[in-house]
Amino acid sequence: MVRLFGPLVGLFFAVALLWSFGVGALQAIREPEPATAVHEFHLHPKEVEFSFNGVFGKFDRAQLQRGFQVYKEVCANCHSLKQVAFRNLTDLGYSEAEVKAIAKQWGTKAKTFDPKTGETGERDNTPADHFPPVYYAGSGSPPDLSLITKARHEGPEYVASLLQGYQDQPAELIKKFPDAKTPDGLYYNPYFANLNISMPAPLMDGQVTYADGTKATVKQEAEDVAAFLTWTAEPKLEKRKQTGLAVLGFLLAATILAYLAKKNVWANKH
Amino acid sequence: MSFPWANEYKPSHPLMQWLDEKLPLPRFVYNAVGAGYPVPRNLNYMWNFGILAGVCLMIQIVTGVVLAMHYAANAGVAFDSVEHIMRDVNWGWMLRYAHANGASAFFVVVYIHIFRGFFYSSYKAPREMIWLLGVTIFLLMMATAFMGYVLPWGQMSFWGAKVITGLFGAIPLVGEPLQQWLLGGFAPDNAALNRFFSLHFLLPFVILGVVILHIWALHIPGSSNPTGVEVKTESDTVPFHPYYTAKDGFGLGVFLLGYCAVLFFAPNMLGHPDNYIAANPLSTPAHIVPEWYFWPFYAILRAFTADFFIIPAKLMGVLAMFSAILCWFFLPWLDTSPVRSGHYRPLFRKFFYVLLVDVLVLGYCGGAPAAEPYVMISQIAATYYFLHFLVILPIVSSIEKPAPLPFSITEAVLGKDEGAVLTSNPAAA
């Protein structure tokens, strides 16, 4: 039974597949897929030498603090950071008193609600609070940035490249794809998935004044905030890599011993 | 059951003798994975992967049970509760990465285990039941992994659940009500998330039960081996302990090195970035792809792009995808060659390697966007896939001239077997 029906079922699927193949091939010959502007002009992120890359990678605390400053003074106007709490900022090298001050001075206050009177109000943020939500009334919907570097392919490089990628639309693109002209209210950026992003260029040279005297070029600001957002997405990155080195070291030793034990046990059986 | 020359369990300590009378658990272990279980002496490292699959199941159960203590299966907070595990739970990041990559490691190991079975025809009599139970485990694993991927409630979780449950909607007449019944609604939401969580917790223990049956069935004829020649005498075997405990110990070390390298240094390599975006029913991702271990079957599903007579393309895809695994159940009866090992089957061996490449190609196409040339490549690859199992295998096994087999396992290992001389040429004795 199996040997009778098996080949019949197999041939049934094979014929159906070849039918699909034929229909698809005919379609492809009649109407070849048109080239698109996205296909030709989209760019992959640029390589960036981050301190946290590699097996021994570590965060550069000064860079994280600069990146936080960029987030606070620029990004935070539109983008929330809801997975991160103010208390987490001690990881960046801030003291508890500094974290308290950062939380207290944060522009958007924490909302309060008194269940007895039904009154709503506001209070200063504390280190225990997460970064408050951001309400954005303009066009587009700025994503929460807590996980952005893990939510994009090659996230840290993507963020750094995107922030430096604003430019005029190439004349070549408009000549070849007249329909793909960037619409009003959007901005051309070849690192963005569909080339046209709602966010205007957020960074320019000297946008922030770094306390440590680092020159605030667009490249510097973009890489600093990309490093900061890598920390917000993966705050345990350093601990992970350090633990991994210890684990692999132990396993390597144990595996060598296991190999020698195996050789010893099998010595007279080959 | 075992071979007559198996060592007998003889406890020397009075306490162990007492225990052996009341509850012979040490005897059971001794006969299952101890010195009381004779195993062919010529097993190569391909025979390591059964043990490794068992280790993976244990890793998944232990990490999964602890993760369940911190996870909240509610559509409103599920995504944030996973981030809570990653940030605020002690070693939570390690548990979650161990569990997510543990699923991938489990599938790597099981795919190698299955292809070992293909090459050495491990499914042939008297081991059909081991094979049938093994394919059942694989199906249960796929269901478990799919539901587990939904739990973080990211974009791929949500849209993956929508696409896969949508497959049931392709079934004529009952499809749509069936899909709504499975999801508990018109689209994945809290009801679906809760039942997936419940089943994701239950199914690993069902898998464990079937694994016990799988190993029980294995211990009746004993392991197959790379020659495919059955065990004849004591010199063909060695006791499981210490020989295979030592060999498996080394294999386990190599496996853990690879697994931990990914876990600690590239934990998101096998995941999809979109799953770090919270589920949003109003925003469809550009490419909806399942986890890598589903890619070959996903490619078969998507290969059916044209209606076939009265059967809609989508239904054909669903039927083919399920048939692609279900046909494995019939392998013991499709492959009729009396020779097991691919080493002695020159024609079969060639087709085996074509199948291996074919499945890798299908896997690559399944992970690629649904565009040309990937669709056309997967159509050709899927055609070969079905022809291989259902047409080529029965034909090859009946026309092939196998190479001569060694007389025994001992002869294959040592180049000579005293017993062979005695049996094959009685006059010389």
UniProtKB/TrEMBL annotation, chain A:
Cytochrome c domain span: 62-233
UniProt-listed InterPro entries? Cyt_c-like_dom (IPR009056), Cyt_c-like_dom_sf (IPR036909), Cyt_c1 (IPR002326)
The subcellular localization recorded is: Membrane
Q: List residues traversing the bilayer.
A: 243-261
Keyword ATP-binding annotated:
no
Q: Which Pfam families match?
A: Cytochrom_C1 (PF02167)
Q: Give the principal location in a single coarse category.
A: membrane
Protein name (Swiss-Prot/TrEMBL): Cytochrome c1
From TrEMBL, chain B:
- Predominantly, its location class is membrane
The keyword Transferase is annotated on this UniProt entry: no
* PROSITE patterns in the record: CYTB_CTER (PS51003), CYTB_NTER (PS51002)
Subcellular localization, as worded in the UniProt entry: Membrane
Cite the Cytochrome b/b6 N-terminal region profile domain residue spans from the record.
15-227
**Which keywords does the record carry?**
Electron transport, Heme, Iron, Membrane, Metal-binding, Respiratory chain, Transmembrane, Transmembrane helix, Transport
Q: Which SUPFAM superfamilies match?
A: a domain/subunit of cytochrome bc1 complex (Ubiquinol-cytochrome c reductase), Transmembrane di-heme cytochromes
Its biological function? Component of the ubiquinol-cytochrome c reductase complex (complex III or cytochrome b-c1 complex), which is a respiratory chain that generates an electrochemical potential coupled to ATP synthesis.
Q: What is this protein called?
A: Cytochrome b
**To which species is this protein native?**
Novosphingobium cyanobacteriorum
Taxonomic placement: Bacteria, Pseudomonadati, Pseudomonadota, Alphaproteobacteria, Sphingomonadales
